[in-house]
């Protein structure tokens, strides 16, 4: 539907006009501007502002979306329940599934589960709980507390400290809301932000410099891993490879020189080893600002998977699994398929052009002289 309105019309009046033209009942509607991806963008929250003030131009598309906007200073947040793929059963019933323990012999072991060992990169399980209207001044702890009221009796947790809150990005956990006492407005959550809650086996109170990583111990003699175990790494001394290796070694009760670690890139099905900085840089080239795992090539962040290899029982440098081989082969076949389709399209285009009626013959070429005058 196309309508012509004055650019000085307010958002409220424009909404009323569109509802009248569309014949839609009720007042639980709002407007959003279509973005460059042809998707619903941010809502037009300032109802008293004019279309000109909000940079609405001729030819723009406004979407009429059902749902009343929250009052100014409030957020309407869809809340999901996040159950990682390597957790099975009720959280109370399996207290050892998330947290491994050092074995009596000093070799770290994780609790095993049925099926393929340690595959956290499969389908992510998100269960929609409902929408939550909350003030931007509320803290992360208050968000968790209010979100607990949306959960059913089957997912009861003792307190908000047993929940971890993430933003949802691409149907997966994205950014971790780590500090419980930090107001939501300091996280700069947009009006399209969604939140997922991850249940924990024990209370957690993360500091501003704590990073949550998913660690997996390589199974000796197999191209597979034990189930994931969460590791909290305090980056107060820097995001260095040496600091992370020390933390992982302590976590696994192994000497730091007897472990190798690697970050997993699930979109590429690749493992990138994380060596001590002095192992792959000479002293002359060593620069302090470069020793930062947040930057290239690791881009380490909350929720990343770290593979751990115990060199006491396995000393090769292969971190890959059979699943990685299958994933790479699938990507290769998809790439070859795209190339074949492109070649076929070009071939068909050439065949089609060759069957066309020949165009008018080109005129013979003639010499052309250009004289540039002097304007001095």
From TrEMBL:
Segments forming domain Ubiquitin carboxyl-terminal hydrolase 40 ubiquitin-like: 1-71
InterPro entries in the cross-refs: UBL_USP40
Segments for region (Disordered): 96-115, 350-376
Keyword Zinc: no
Classification via Pfam families: UBL_USP40
GO molecular function: hydrolase activity
Record keywords, A-Z: Hydrolase
Name of this protein: Ubiquitin carboxyl-terminal hydrolase 40 isoform X7
């Amino acid at each position: 539907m196309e309508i012509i309105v004055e650019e000085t019309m307010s958002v409220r009046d424009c909404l009323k006009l569109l509802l009248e033209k569309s014949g839609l009942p009720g007042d639980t509607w709002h407007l959003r501007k279509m973005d460059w991806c042809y998707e619903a963008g941010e809502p037009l929250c300032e109802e008293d502002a004019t279309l000109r003030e909000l940079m609405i131009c001729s030819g723009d598309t406004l979407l009429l979306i059902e749902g009343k906007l929250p009052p100014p200073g409030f957020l309407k947040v869809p809340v999901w329940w996040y159950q990682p793929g390597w957790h099975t059963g009720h959280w109370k019933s399996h207290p050892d599934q998330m947290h491994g323990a050092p074995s009596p012999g000093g070799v770290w072991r994780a609790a095993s589960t049925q099926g393929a060992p340690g595959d956290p990169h499969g389908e992510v399980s998100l269960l929609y709980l409902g929408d939550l209207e909350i003030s931007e001044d509320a803290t992360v702890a208050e968000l968790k507390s209010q979100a607990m009221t949306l959960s059913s009796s089957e997912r009861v947790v003792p307190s908000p400290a047993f929940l971890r809150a993430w933003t949802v990005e691409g149907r997966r956990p994205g950014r971790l809301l780590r500090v419980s006492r930090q107001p939501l407005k300091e996280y700069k959550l947009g009006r399209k932000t969604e939140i997922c809650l991850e249940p924990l086996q024990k209370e957690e109170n993360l500091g501003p410099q704590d990073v949550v990583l998913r660690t997996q111990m390589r199974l000796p003699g197999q191209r597979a891993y034990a189930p994931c175990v969460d590791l909290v790494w305090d980056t107060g001394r820097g995001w260095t490879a040496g600091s992370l290796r020390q933390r992982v070694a302590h976590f696994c009760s192994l000497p730091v020189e007897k472990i190798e670690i690697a970050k997993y890139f699930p979109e590429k099905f690749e493992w990138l080893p994380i060596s001590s900085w002095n192992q792959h840089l000479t002293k002359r080239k060593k620069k302090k600002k470069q020793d930062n795992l947040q930057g290239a090539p690791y881009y380490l962040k909350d929720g990343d998977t770290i593979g751990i290899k115990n060199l006491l029982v396995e000393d090769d440098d292969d971190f890959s699994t059979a699943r990685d081989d299958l994933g790479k082969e699938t990507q290769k076949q998809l790439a070859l398929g795209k190339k074949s389709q492109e070649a076929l399209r070009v071939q068909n285009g050439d065949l089609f052009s060759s069957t066309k009626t020949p165009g008018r013959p080109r005129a013979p070429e003639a010499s052309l002289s250009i004289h540039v005058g002097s304007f001095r």
